[in-house]
Amino acid sequence: MNLISPLANIHSKGQFGDYKDKNERELLKISELKNLLIIQIVQYKNSQVSLENISIDNLNFNNEPLKVTSNSDTRILWNGPKNWLLVSSKKDLINNLLNVCNESDFAVTDLSHSKAIIELEGKNTREVLKKGCPFNFNTLEKNNSINSTYNGIAFTIDMLDTNPEKVRLFTLRSFGESFYHSITDASLEFGFKTI
Amino acid sequence: MLHIKCPHCGLRSQNEFSYGGDASVKRPELNQEISDKDWDNFVYNRKSLRGKHWELWQHLSGCRQWIKVERDTATHEIFNTLKADEEIS
Question: Where are the beta strands (DSSP E) in chain B?
């Protein structure tokens, strides 16, 4: 079966907005991420299992708000109390996950095909996010993640790096095109390059 | 813009929250006889207070948890927030 990416109809490569007379390195870079494993993991309220004993791809579930635990392939985002979003380039990790997370203690849901993911990189990344999201981005640090809204569209931000600033934005697949338009419209004044 | 301090996530814009009603209403005990008037009071009848008031809110676009918020209905000032399972003192 051929998989059609959520942004296949609108994401085209090129330079847009106020990019003329600017160094290409200074432009915002916008790309669509595909083929990632995205799993929602929820620990049931009555579960007594200690999270310290659970490890996936050598990462533990962290119950600390906004924190992301990560290695080069996998990131586990705190999504709420006893609620995480696992994002990985290792597609076979789900089998490992189902073995580790007992179904009487955890609800494990594969969301890989229900999310649109945009990666944004460049020094004006925060400015673009500030235009549509009410969160105070001065408090967002590397390896933090938040859920919020962008022009009314619910989305998740994963702060990958701060130098240069690099974020992954997740939204529902069905909101993907509207969300992409919101992000690219906000990026026009800085000039951006789509990859 | 109104800001609400979510006990799980921290200070967030009110845009991320959804109002859920009066937090002081208690559901009648299960498996006990209850009069129609008491049931009406639980389901429909609400006081429309002016001043400090405990309300339920859901952090819908954040951690999706229900929380309790003490808000002044006249000035919109927020005094306190609690997790849903924490008792109002």
Answer: 3-6, 10-13, 18-22, 52-58, 66-72, 78-83
